[in-house]
Each structure stands twice: as structure tokens, then as C-alpha cells.
């Protein structure tokens, strides 16, 4: 006999619905970071006086994202190391040299997405691997999901806005030049909008 909910008694039907597995999340979708709304900044203490603040001006990335569960499941961000900018030409040239980023041999800085652990309704910790100067080390980013909705103008596609930050020690990636002058700890911040494909 063909199964039909219409043949179940009301109590039996209620029990069947309660015991049936329910999927709470949508399927993850692919998102591409909008390069017009993508900022990567860093800051490091200089001689104990003040932080030097800089940024990388060229980067791209994509990831898998579930808008119902705020889960990031895969993806990567690639930064062009020679796009480093601190508003000081001689310092920027030094940062590109073998003493720091060594961009001639290591032109890209790559963050590869690992696991995501939610910590609140719109926050979580995103683990992954950061490749810098040929060394790959694990890092964890504190992530805030600011908004996920259809964009109000322009492309009008579904878009997620994210803020993320972490602090790394540059010495762990072999960048040890001038540790008595320039801090070991580097704070990294990411601000981005990513568009659903």
C-alpha cells in the first residue's frame, strides 16, 4: 500500500513529524570577495612609541558560506605581498626586501580556510593556515558577520559583509629583522563584502 500522511491518525502524524529529521541549514554556496570592498590592514609597534599602520592594496578571495548557519567551510584569500603600503616609500621598499616580506621569492601571502566554530549568533572563530615567506602556520581569526542580504543597488546580488581580525608573531614565519625596534606581534584586520555566485 502506498504511504500517505492522509492515512495516519492525527496523533500518529504529529509523532511522525516530531521524529522526522529536520535540516536547519541551507546548502553552502560559493562567494567571491568584491575587490572594491576589500581592505586588509595591519599594525605593529615601533620602538614602543606608536603603532605603524599599513595595508595591502591588492588581494582576492573566495569561500563557501551557509547564510542560515553563518558557516564558512572552504576557501582562500591571496594577497600580493608587494602591494604593502604604509605611506612611506622607503619603508615600503624595505618591507618588500629580504629583511621582511621578501617579495621577489615569495610574491603571495595566502590564507587557506580550515574549520569554523561559532561563538555567538553572528560571531565565530575561523581557523586556517597562513602561508608567508614560504612558511605555513596555523592561525585563528575572530569573525563577525555584519550583514547578509540582497545588495540594495548595483549588482543587487545576495552579499555577506564580514569583519575579521587576528594577531600573529612575525618571528614564527622567520621574519626576525629588527625585533628590538619593531614589534613581533602584528595585528591583522580584514573588512570585506562577498557576493554569492
- Morphology call: elongated
The side-by-side strand order for the widest beta sheet comes to 1-3-4-6-7-8-9-10
* Derived structural class: mainly beta
Task: List the uncertain runs.
Answer: 1-25
Q: What share of residues is helical?
A: under 10%
**Alpha-carbon distance between the termini?**
44 Å
The string of secondary-structure elements, in order, is: HEEEEEHEEEEE
Note the main sheet. Answer: 8 strands, antiparallel, barrel
* Number of separate strands: 10
The radius of gyration is 22 Å
- Classify the fold: give the CATH topology: Lipocalin
| CATH C-level | Mainly Beta
CATH level-two architecture = Beta Barrel
CATH superfamily: Lipid/polyisoprenoid-binding, YceI-like
Question: How would you explain this protein's 3D organization?
Answer:
- The chain has helices at residues 10-19, 89-96; strands at 29-46, 50-56, 59-66, 71-80, 84-85, 108-118, 123-132, 135-150, 158-169, 185-196.
- It has one domain (24-196): Lipocalin.
- The model is unreliable at 1-25 (pLDDT under 50).
- An 8-stranded antiparallel beta barrel has the order 1-3-4-6-7-8-9-10.
- Strand 3 (59-66) and strand 4 (71-80) form a beta hairpin.
- By secondary structure, it is mainly β.
Question: Brief overview, please?
Answer:
By secondary structure, the protein is mainly beta. The chain has a single domain, classed as Lipocalin, CATH 2.40.128.
Outline the secondary-structure elements.
Layout: H1 10-19, E1 29-46, E2 50-56, E3 59-66, E4 71-80, E5 84-85, H2 89-96, E6 108-118, E7 123-132, E8 135-150, E9 158-169, E10 185-196
Antiparallel strand pairs: 1-2, 1-3, 1-10, 2-5, 3-4, 4-6, 6-7, 7-8, 8-9, 9-10
